[in-house]
Amino acid sequence: MEILRYPNPFLRKKAKAVKKIDEKIRKLIKNMIETMHAAPGVGLAAPQIGESIRLFVVDTGEGPFAVINPKIKSKSKIMQTFEEGCLCLPGIVGPVSRPSKITVEGLDRLGKKITIEADRYLATILQHEIDHLDGIVFIDKVKDKTQIREVSKKFEEENKELL
Ligand code: ZN
């Protein structure tokens, strides 16, 4: 699947909730996981491949999973800053401050309710992906734009944990 490139206006749309979790959605999830792995990346939201629905996939090395219709139930007051990147903005990274712990509720690929308590790096990834569902990209949240820097393809591959 083709990953849209910023500033494609599609990336600014607010995505709609998934109404029915059927084989079509499961096939999309499978394709999104393959696309994420091939990129390579650690997260991919449906709007990034041109599907305006609330769904994303993540794989931090412990196996891929999908979250459908995610909602952030709680977030810590304590913030953390990671240098983020995005498959829609290849070649650049920048520091983003986000709550360090969050609880996300959603549905899995079979429509079962799931609750994810995430901290550290996973907390940042989940928030980055949920932002995509609301038309937000990470550079919107880099406070000091001079801190956005270019990186090489090789650097990106060696630092996959930078999203
Ligand atoms: Zn992204």
Question: If you had to describe this structure to a student in words, what would you say it looks like?
Answer:
The chain has 3 helices and 8 strands. Helix content is 22%, strand content 29%. The chain has helices at residues 23-38, 120-133, 153-158; strands at residues 43-45, 55-58, 65-75, 79-84, 92-99, 101-107, 113-119, 149-150. By secondary structure, it is α+β, with helices and mostly antiparallel strands. Strand 6 (101-107) and strand 7 (113-119) form a beta hairpin. The longest helix is centred in the N-terminal third of the chain and has 16 residues, at 23-38. It has a 5-stranded antiparallel β-sheet with strand order 1-2-3-6-7. It starts with 22 loop residues before the first helix and ends in a 5-residue tail after the last helix. It has one domain: Peptide deformylase (Peptide Deformylase, Alpha-Beta Complex), CATH 3.90.45. Bound molecules: zinc ion. Zinc ion binds next to helix 2.
CATH hierarchy: architecture: Alpha-Beta Complex
User: By helix and strand content, what is the structural category?
Assistant: alpha+beta
Give the bound compounds: zinc ion
Query: How large a portion of the residues is in β-strands, by DSSP E?
Result: 25-35%
Spatial order of the strands forming the largest sheet: 1-2-3-6-7
* Largest pleated sheet: 5 strands, antiparallel
Whole-angstrom Rg: 15 Å
H-E order? HEEEEEEEHEH
The CATH superfamily bears the name Peptide deformylase
How many β-strand runs?
A: 8
Helical segment tally?
3
GO molecular function, one term: metal ion binding
Family: Belongs to the polypeptide deformylase family.
EC number: 3.5.1.88
Protein name: Peptide deformylase
